[in-house]
Amino acid sequence: MGPGERVPFGLQLPGYPWDSMAPFQEIAARHPDGVVDLSIGTPVDPTPTLIRAALGAAADAHGYPTTHGTAALREAIAGWFARRRNVPGLDPQDILPTVGSKELVAWLPLLLGLGEGDVVVRPATAYPTYDIGAHLAGATAVAADSVAELPPGIRDRVRLVWINSPGNPTGEVLDVEQLRTVVDEARSLGAVVASDECYAELGWGQWDPSEGGSAVPSVLDPAVCGGSHHLLLAVYSLSKQSNLAGYRAAFTAGDPAIVASLVNSRKHAGMIVPYPVQEAMRVALGDDAHVEEQKDRYRRRRTLLVPALEEAGFTIHGSDGGLYLWARTGTPTWETIRALAELGILAGPGTFYGEAGEGFVRIALTGSDERVAAAVARLAAAPG
Questions:
Q1: What are the backbone angles phi and psi of residue 301, rounded to the nearest 5°?
Q2: pLDDT tens-digit map of 85-102
Q3: Is the pTM of this model over 0.85?
Q4: Triad 54, 240, 354: Cα angle to 5°
């Protein structure tokens, strides 16, 4: 940049990765029976009626909502943690609603006061917004599945450790012992552990309670944290379990001092969940029936897609929880993406999730029953 030239306005962020899918969207769109979009993973099923009714009933929201959330909402979240996540006795004061979970992921390092020289650790294969959050704060993102594997010069600068279980995109689930190891390692460094648990109700096989398995554990479970939430945050979203992606309905809970600081900062910044959405969340968290109904839909779709992919030459890795199948054929990621696009099927490129994702594609369970059936038929009919 020459003398007198100014730095361009705007944040200097990498291009949004999904924009690179445009050529493959065009290929898939040529299929005579239309596109089967199993890429992004946005819910396609209706928002339950009782939640829509709660939103409508709260539509006369003429006053400013509270940043901390209503007492009734936070009590509902505490009750849900006790009932569904094996986290008893959570103080509603230590809970905060957020404008979706992605917003919190992106801004948490900054709101924690992290900056230059600080290290944010995220899983080796991970949702890219963890890196973006570190970048926004001026911190350094490091890909690692264990703090212990980092060299001392990096490990000593770790201030935040992200875990994601069930993971996006891999679907891997961390058990109690694995979670406890992460917590112990981070606490020994004085680092915060933020656990992104938004797929926790979508465990499969050994993690599916309705089929005799265990519930996916939370970082706030006493068996994990030893009964103390010091330096811990659990992050959760209702987008998946309640089809509320369009509501931007999520929350975090944990360390009292950290939550209090987040509340104060967010008051100053105007980061507030609208009151009608808070009411919709409150009602959604009090009803388990619609969650089970939605999980049944995803279970049926998963049961169809897994064998269809395997018979088409894919090997599925992880995928023990969540909305995705993490699969590979032995060819490079973008070759697989093109081959699927030529069948009219869109999948997520594994390379969007870090270098460890090369060779993989992420296939979502979020097509309608009709579209998933179409994908299964196309995979079966595909040549050799």
A1: -65, -40
A2: 999 999 999 999 999 999
A3: yes
A4: 145
